[in-house]
Amino acid sequence: MKKQWWHGKTAYQIYPKSFCDSNGDGIGDLQGIISKLDYLKELGADILWLSPIYVSPLADQGYDIADYYRIDPRFGTMEDMDELIAEAKKRDMYILMDLVVNHCSDEHEWFKKACEDPDGKYGKYFYIETVKDGKLPCNWRSYFGGPVWDRLPGHEDKYYLHVFHKKQPDLNWENPELREEIYTMINWWLDKGLAGFRIDAIINIKKALPFKDYPADREDGLTSVQNMLHEAKGVGEFLGEMRDRTFLPHNAFTVGEVFNEKEEELPDFIGDNGYFSSMYDFEENIFGRSHQGWHKDTPITPDDYRNCVFRTQKKIGDIGFISNIIENHDEPRGVSRYIPEGDADDASKKMLATLYFLVRGLPWIYQGQEIGMENAPVRSIEEVDDISSIDEYKVALAAGVSEKEALHLVERYGRDNARTPFQWNDGNAAGFTDGTPWIRVNPNYTAINLESQRHDPDSVYNYYRKLIILRKNPLYSETLIYGELIPYLENEHNVMAYFRRSPGQTILVIANFQKERRTLPLPSPVKNVLLSNLPLEAASYTGTAVSLEGYQAAVLEI
Ligand code: GLC
Ligand code: CA
To answer: Both 314 and 379 in a single domain?
Structure first.
């Protein structure tokens, strides 16, 4: 694997709507982000990904773009965006935008023109089919529920495809003219000085055609889009073309949201000349998911979590550099998910941080993760904004799950968990806005907020800073960034441990992933304690064993 400028960096995801509101309208915005750049610099973040801020009806919170060339006025102006890019540069930081090109909004002018003339130029930008006798072209179920087909406005017999929400019509990548439009747009943004993109839902751009049914996997007679994606061949031709026409000439950094990749294709995706610089590891995130819906999902245990992380690490090896996360804007908070219920506290949060941050790959922090933000309680389905939660709630009820339990599923898996406002302080709306926030604030903001942690050396926040500093420390960075990862005590219940090894140096990351204290064997004596989330006195380790408190994690040079 070739070394790249970004391998040693720390990446950070901003969900603009919920990060910081500068003008009191309750919606986070670009000026809010600019006002926090010094904070992000202090944390140690280098690469900042912004979830979409383009003009959008926000049916799916900006992942439904109505104009790729303009900033939504709710988030600010193009001048604000230019200012953000320039201010980031001054601080040696890099801005990534979200590239959402599997679909656009039904309010995009391309789609409006397609409705006016489905047989004309813009009709071919989408998948539009004529339907006779009410039989849809295929039985795929959209990710947000219901068939992927909806009637084309103004036409009785025509339907358009949307694998996500009905306000997100899929773009037809088979059409070279459409692809040209996309490349022009990407280059336009890169020319502005963006460092690159996070690339949304990209595996969906290749459909298995012609449309056909797959065996139904629920009583609705529909089938998960995944069943089609398993059969779709040739996405690499589109991705390679996009890379060659846009990212490569700009030397852009890109990270793909890739699910369902085929293992043999990994070198094509993130190898030295891959379609993307990196892609996310979703192994832990998809663990236990059922095609039936959230009510059939299996919660993840510490052993499952460890096994998922190691599976990815083994699969990737030295092929490329994976992107590691514990959460993002589509997932519940990592500390609420991967730490056994009831056990999330400062110690266990720091333990989880240590484990995911020091495996091989690029570490990403999702806004609020650095202060240990947790899932938010849901009192009723009316206060839920997330379209996927609302669908899953209905699916659960239809399957006979009680209202209370269905609500609990939304609390456990819902996307709103990550979208509640950043908790800056214990003032109005957690310091996110002077007005009324667009979405409820997590009631725990008086206990969990940045202000109370910023000057406390033992806070979760300052622990994240220590992790970032350690990974960048020239004495250890070669090992922590590029060193091989070798699992240790791989079959030990509730233990997650691994070596990072480079010629002449071995670092052991070892964690007791449970409440009860325990003693674990050491393969060789400790030379140096590089970090520990709880005090680790010299008396706690001998040459051959280390005794760890519940949820203690230690980083040891051996
Ligand atoms: C991605 C985004 C998600 C969005 C979907 C459709 O998965 O992360 O938020 O709903 O794509 O664009
Ligand atoms: Ca605002």
So the answer is: yes
Beta carbons within 8 Å of 435's beta carbon, 6+ residues apart:
21, 24, 25, 26, 429
Domain that holds residue 368: 11-99+281-460
For the chain, what is the domain count? 3
Rg of the chain over Cα atoms, rounded to whole angstroms, equals 24
Instruction: Give yes or no: 257 in active site.
Output: yes
- Output the CA 28–ligand 2 centroid distance in Å: 5
Q: How much distance in Å is there from the Cα of 61 to the middle of ligand 1?
A: 9
Tell me how far apart the alpha carbons of residues 242 and 221 are, in angstroms, rounded to a whole number: 36
Residues with CB under 6 A from ligand 1: 60, 63, 100, 164, 200-201, 257, 329-330
Ligand positioned closest to the Cα atom of 435:
2
The answer to whether residues 435 and 366 belong to one domain is: yes
pLDDT grade, residue 262 (50/70/90)? confident
pTM given for the model: 0.98
For residue 40, give the H/E element and its range. Answer: helix 37-43
Does residue 297 sit within a domain?
yes
Average of per-residue pLDDT across 314-324? 97
Q: What is the CATH number of the domain that holds 137?
A: 3.90.400.10
